[in-house]
Every structure is written in structure tokens, then in C-alpha cells.
Amino acid sequence: MAKTLHILGVAGLSVLLSFCSEKKEQGGDSAQYQITDKVITLTDGSNLKSRIKTNKVSEEEFNFDLVTAGLVKAIPNHYAEINSPFAGRIIKSFVKLGQKVSVNTPLFEISSPDYFAAQREYFDSKQEFKQATLNLKRQDDLLKNGVGVRQEFEESQTQYTMAKAAYENAIAAIKIYSTNPANMTLGQALVVRSPIDGEVLENNIVLGQYITEESEPVIKVAALNKIWIVGKIKEKDIQHLAKLNKVQVELAAYPNEPLEGKIYHVNEIVDEETRSIDVLIEVDNNDRKLKPGMYVNVRFIDKPQQVMLVSSKAVMQGEDESFVFVKVGENQYTRKNITIGGVSKDKTVVLSGLNAGDEIVSEGGIYLPQL
């Protein structure tokens, strides 16, 4: 069978020249190897023999371990930026920075002409509904006693229906602002209340300050006993998320005290610029180590599994695939394409393409031709 001499491309030209010069100095043949049926055979005098090292592949227990940066943020429905629903002047404050509050806890009081107008509308509609109710009852009694007029009764029904709708709308408008209409008096100031349980993170209340609906929030409240961390995972690593069962959060301030987290949600949209997706991790934060806006490291850890690990030096990269050189005889090697599943320190996980017991080139594969 014919044997052919492999000629290196431009990328290996300098290596080939160095080999040739070495052989010339030794007075031997300039051929370092021969190729037959995709098997590379080192020639007897090849100085590649001393450059190539091999070892056998075996299965090892491995934890998939992916580390990425994360940003701490408050859970949206546990966070509120609070302003006044009406333009007006702040006349009283009920809270201080860091204070814990519950739903409907008074935060501040504001004197607002718009709120007064809403109060008047409520009381006016209440009175009109009361009159419409009395008029309907009167027309109903007259009709039942044979002295009423059907048309007037029907008109009173229409007025009653309209008045009732206006009254119910006015009640709903008042309740939006956590005000009980039954306890409201005309002209009283609006008490703005907390919509959530939590603690006061920011308090920018200034007594006498005039604010509008477009003003910056004067109070920020958040429940921080649980918190979200937004971690970014590269597109190529998305496949591993379904199998991950543990998440550790590492803080620079507490290097030896990692926190446990769990994946809450994986975003469905890939960021076109970074080619990554956002992963939301929920973490208990009862001791308040995590602060919104803080940067942390997020470590995703898989269950231990038996995989084939090879030296990362053994893995070559072609145009569209990864490969290694497998030893098939004494000083004989062939290329084998592999599928890799991640890198851990100086080891690479091989998902397919190799069998336990295969002997591969662990060092020096760069000197062999890419078949």
C-alpha cells in the first residue's frame, strides 16, 4: 500500500523547518512521520518521539462547576418606591430610616387639593345615591298603592342605577389610596401607607416639601429576608442548567461563608451582545449579608457523575470540532473527534468520542498533523 508524506500547512511551517534542520544536523531523513489510511506513524529517526506523551483514559467522578458574576437585587414584588398619588405638601412623617413596616403602615401625610376634590366627589355621590334610593322607594310605594305613575317609577330606577354606579366608583377611587371611606371626613389630609411588608431603605421626606405625581419617590421599602441574584450564563452552558441541583453564592466580604441558593427562573431571551442569558437565583437573606446592588460570584454545581476527564493539553481544536490523537500501535496515532462538556481547571470533560481504556496523546499533539 502506498505511503504518503504529509506536508504541513502554513501554521506548522516553522515547526517543520525546525525538524528538517535538526535532521540535517543529524544527517538523517527529513521525514518525521508517514500517513497510511489516516494513521500517523512516526519514523524510526523521528525526534517527535521525545515530544509526545500518552496516558490512558478512565472514568472519574466529576462535579460540573460553573462560576459567573451575579448582581444582587430586591425581589420586585417585595420592593416598593412610594410617592404621593396626588400633588400636595408633606405635613407629617411617621417613619424613620431602617424602620420595619407592615402593609398599611402610615408613612407620611400630605395636604392635597386634588385629594380634597376626590373626597368631595365621594360625599356628593354618597348623598345623591341616598336621595336616589329614597326616591325609588317612594315611587315604588306609590305604584303599589295605585297612585303612582309607571314612567316616574322607571325614571327613578334609572336615576338610582346611575347614582349607585357613581357612588361605587367614588368608593373604589378612595380605597385605592388605602383610605377607609367610612372613617373619612371632608378636608382631612391624605395618609400615604406602605403597600408591602418590609423595612425603610430610603427616607427622603422633608416636612413642608411640595411634591407631584412625577416627583422622585420619597420612600423606598423592601422585604430583604429573601433576595434575588441575577447571574449571566453563556449560551453554550445553557444545556447544563436543567441538571444543576446546587447554587453557591460567594461574597468578597465573607470569603469562607458561601450562601446556598436555588434557581428561581431562567430567562427565555438570549442577550445578543453578550450571548448569555439571565438566571434568577433566590437566596435566604435573614442575616442581611446581601445588599441590593452588590456584586457576588455565583457557583453552579451539578450532582457528581462518572465522566471521562482528559488533560486539556490533549484536546485540539479544528475548524468546527474538537479532537484528540489516539494511540493505535507503537508510535502510531490517529485523530478522533470528541464532544466536550466543559473545563475544570486543567481537565476537560469528554461527553462522547472516547472509550475508557483508550490511550491518547496527552502532550505533544500540536506536533502531529491534523488529518
Short description:
With about 375 residues, this protein is α+β, with helices and mostly antiparallel strands. Helices cover about 20% and strands about 40% of the residues.
State the separation between the terminal residues, measured CA to CA.
18 Å
Shape verdict: elongated
Q: What is the makeup of the main sheet? A: 8 strands, antiparallel
Number of helices: 3
The residue ranges in which pLDDT falls below 50 over 5 or more consecutive positions are 1-29
Instruction: Classify the helix fraction into a percent range.
Output: 10-25%
Which class do the helix and strand fractions yield?
Answer: alpha+beta
Q: What is the rounded Rg?
A: 38 Å
How would you spell out the order of helices and strands? HEEEEEEEEEHHEEEEEEEEEEEEEEE
Q: Topology, pairings included?
A:
Elements: H1 13-26, E1 33-36, E2 39-42, E3 53-56, E4 59-62, E5 65-73, E6 79-82, E7 88-93, E8 100-101, E9 106-111, H2 113-144, H3 150-175, E10 190-193, E11 198-203, E12 210-211, E13 219-222, E14 226-234, E15 244-250, E16 259-266, E17 276-284, E18 295-302, E19 305-311, E20 316-317, E21 322-329, E22 332-344, E23 347-352, E24 359-363
